[in-house]
Amino acid sequence: MVDDPESSQWDITKRLVDVAWPIIGLNVLQVLALAVDTAMVGRLTDAENALTGMGYAGQLVFLLMVAMIGLTVGTVAFVARAHGARQDERVNHILHQSTQLTLVLGVFVAIAGNVVAVPLLMLLGAEEAAMGSALDYLRPLLLGTAFNYLNILYAAVLRGVGNTRLAFFVAVFMNGLNVIFNYGLILGNFGLPALGIFGAAIGTVLSQLAAAVLMYLLLHRDAVPGVHPNLVILPVDRDLVKDIVRIGWPAGLDMVILNAGFLTIIGLLARVDEVAVAAHAIGLRVQALAFVPGMSISQATGALVGAALGAGHIEEAKRVIRASLVLCTFIMTALGMTFIFFAGPLVEIFNVHPGTDLFDYSVIWMKVLGYGMPIVGIWISWVGMFQGSGATRRSLRINVTTTMLFQIPMSYILGFPLGFGLWGIWGAFPLAFAIKMVWGWWEYRKGEWAKVGSRV
């Protein structure tokens, strides 16, 4: 929460860093769980097949998570506003209602995801061998959806009240278990069966379950004053649910549109060479890790902007956004330079060796990502502003327009008619973000996002 409307820009920057660093740690650990899966699976005898399957499965998991992303964004917006207005009772009411929604959503996604898995994988162009690997990895993850979603929700609520450290420490515990389980179940260590890619999913789900139980017990025993989860079933607060959906659905659809762009890329890559899909999966693992600092600052920005507006401090919210822009741009530019100059060594971490198509394709994708990182960093700051203020429809409008009318057609045009191949297919991604960056600046200058009060 931002307490002093007269705080200097430096004070606000320090406050943003203080809230953001545990989020960075949390998100790094979440991404590392996927990286551990990828690195260990990369040591299997059929590694290329397995990695390709993980590439397909990862995109579907992301697609199916969009509703949870919307629920989280809506919850954080209302929790931050209530916390900024010092309404602890409302914070817990929002938490309880969101918990019930999360459990229902987790069960629904587990069932629906398994039903549509094969048709969607076929739509993406997965061949028989890759299809088998994708399903081996996907089905256990889907069955454990509720555990994963509860961890996401609890971390988001804690972010909304300005306490980000507890979620970080629980994530440390979860990832330690993930490494142990995966080392045993993927490769057959500790006397456990060698289950390959299936074992990677089982280990991840078990660690998510343990983390969700631990977080609930800690919060239930007053680990964070004023935040008390409760699993007792209560009547649904329809007005609150409608409000959460009103704020959250554009953010969830935002992810659908972003994912549509990535799915289109996968479809176009498969037309060139299916090995490029595996390269895309490797790049996404590194990208996810590299995007963590910017996305974490964006999440902290949203929480602090929401708290400031809940307390009626518009100028304070603007200082948070300015601090976010500086931090995101600096950090993402530094990471982008690392991608460009050290693309090869980064790819080799995944046991992919020079002289193969998989290595060459992965290096191309790394460099494209590196060139786009500064632009993406600025857009990420605007996303924090939109989500924290509840102006999620503006973000959606920008994303829909640039992705559907520019990125997707441009990927095809650059890749095939203009003959740039993989460079062109991937290159449309940062070009689209340049448009988003400028449009976000224009929305900020208009100022229509800044609405004060405890309700969004």
Fold blueprint:
Elements: H1 9-41, H2 47-64, H3 66-84, H4 88-124, H5 128-143, H6 145-160, H7 165-187, H8 197-220, H9 238-272, H10 275-310, H11 314-341, H12 343-348, H13 357-389, H14 392-415, H15 421-446
Helix pairs in contact: 1-7, 1-8, 1-10, 1-11, 2-4, 2-5, 2-9, 2-10, 3-4, 3-6, 3-9, 3-10, 4-5, 4-6, 4-9, 5-8, 6-8, 7-8, 9-10, 9-14, 9-15, 10-11, 10-13, 11-13, 13-14, 13-15, 14-15
Plain-language structure description:
- By secondary structure, this protein is mainly alpha-helical.
- The chain has one domain (9-446).
- It has helices at 9-41, 47-64, 66-84, 88-124, 128-143, 145-160, 165-187, 197-220, 238-272, 275-310, 314-341, 343-348, 357-389, 392-415, 421-446.
- Helix 3 runs antiparallel to helix 4, helix 4 (88-124) packs antiparallel against helix 5 and helix 7 (165-187) packs antiparallel against helix 8.
Helix/strand class = mainly alpha
Our Rg estimate from Cα atoms comes to 21 Å
Compute the separation of the termini in Å. 16 Å
Looking at the chains present, what oligomeric state does this protein adopt? single chain
Helix content: over 70%
Per DSSP, what share of the residues sits in E-state strands of 2 or more residues? Answer: under 5%
How many discrete structural domains?
1
Number of helices: 15
Outline the biggest β-sheet: none
> What is the molecular shape?
globular
Mean pLDDT: 88
E-strand count: 0
The residue ranges in which pLDDT falls below 50 over 5 or more consecutive positions are none
